[in-house]
Amino acid sequence: MDLPTLPDRPHLAEVVPSVLAVLGVPRFENTLDLPPATGACVLLVDGLGWELLEDHAADAPVLSSLKRSSLRVGYPATTVAGLAAIGTGLASGEHGMTGYTFEMPGVGVLNALRWRRHPGGPDLTGQLAPEDVQPLPTTFSTAADAGVHACVVSEAQFAQSPLTRAVQRGSRYVGVHALGDLAASVLSVLRESPGFCYAYHSQLDLMGHLYGPGSPAWRQQLRQVDRLVEALVEGLPAGRMLLVVADHGMVTVDGTAVDLDAMPGLTGGVREIGGEVRARHVYTVPGAEGDVLAAWRAALGEHAWVAGREEAIAAGWFGPRVSDRVRPRIGDVVAAARDGFGMLRRQAEPMESALVGQHGSVTTAEQLVPLAISCR
Fold first, then answer.
1. What transmembrane ranges does the database entry give (predicted)?
2. Contact 301, 314 (CB under 8 A)
């Protein structure tokens, strides 16, 4: 099977290194050719795909009026990998946060958002240290070590989460509760402490999952996001820069979706299934990889790209380098959905399988996100 290559665009992982280069932090390079600034905020709007913004530009007039280009987010196109790209400046093959769920050798499949054994297993906080799952220095800690103030403005509930520790350690965390204090906190940080501020907004992604990207509820939330961007643009202190990005786009799963839990022909030789609806990791028993690969290719047909681990790595899905630490986290077989296809697990993942909007795969609708810039 010929596998698609990812879009020829700069990677989301280049955003923060480029910002830190502008701010004078050694060893980073401004590969995005950002303008000079004394401080910057990177606002990540979860789920804001480039194609979705283009299709609904009228609902986001301020954001759409900014200087914009597109980035690719890498594989899988999901929040855990995207936040890790921001937090390390690396693609998933190096930071190792290879999906919503992925196997940690000796532990089992980890749900990286909930830090629990997946599916439905015990909390792993006391057993699995976030610093062991993602041991590389973060962009925040590197900035702080260089004397640049590094701050995260995000939901208060995430302040002490294992994922925060894994990909955002080294920052000062400002917990917020709604769009109002998100905007106020960002502007306060930029006024008081010139440096690097990262801000995160999650609700557009939630509306897309629940009602579908482009639905009335999603469009109303996009309008609220645009008001947030407007407030930040108008309030930017002199010399500061705002960059608006996203971690992935989203598609509506259609009637071609299948329930993997109801397909016994796909379980032979399989130890574990990870990933998510549009991007699956399949972990096999020793010696069964070839049989599992053939069975999944035959069953999913033209609905998905199904590859062996080494094929997916060679196609560049996980970035230019995949470390030995990360390689076992990638499925022995990797399946990426095409079009509106989904690989549900209604018994094992009832909540996730019920969602209308999904993401994770290599399609441009999921891979491309905006990079919108405003300078004062």
1. none
2. no
**Hey, where are the domains in the chain?**
12-250+362-375, 258-358
Which residues fall within 8 angstroms of residue 175, CB to CB, at 6 or more apart?
Answer: 154, 155, 156, 157, 158, 159
What is the average per-residue pLDDT within 211-223? 98
Residues 6+ apart with CB under 8 A from 12: 71, 72, 73, 74, 82, 85, 86, 245, 247, 369
Query: 12-250+362-375: what fold?
Result: Alkaline Phosphatase, subunit A (3.40.720)
Structure pTM?
0.97
Mean predicted confidence (pLDDT) in 296-320: 98
Tens digit of each residue's pLDDT (9 = 90 or more) over 147-174: 999 999 999 999 999 999 999 999 999 9
CA distances to 5, 58, 66, 175, 176 from 179, in Å: 37, 20, 20, 12, 8
Per CATH, domain 258-358 is 3.30.1360.180:
yes
